[in-house]
Write a structure and sequence with these properties.
It contains 4 helices and no strands. The chain is mainly α. The chain is elongated.
């Protein structure tokens, strides 16, 4: 019964949102460390990615050596439902 309560559902949704924000923040920090400070346009593009796309980017960024790698990844994956 507790799982059906509105308050429980709100707390659960808030926890999921906090987790997603933390994951997004971590991936953005890792990208910045890997390729340097991002132009605002790149940050804006990254902020539109779904959680699944961010997770895939988090794995792909291990192979990045420059901002060009990030741009190529975004051009290939942005807007696609993965």
């Amino acid at each position: 019964m507790m799982r059906e309560s509105v308050i429980y559902q709100e707390i659960l949704a808030e926890g999921e949102q906090i987790g997603q924000q933390r994951e997004r923040s971590l991936i953005l920090r890792l990208i910045t460390r890997r390729v340097g400070e991002l132009p605002q346009e790149m940050s804006d593009r990254l902020n539109t990615l779904s959680l699944e796309q961010l997770e895939n980017l988090g794995e792909a960024l291990l192979d990045f050596t420059s901002l060009a790698d990030l741009v190529l990844w975004l051009d290939t994956h942005e807007g696609r439902i993965l």
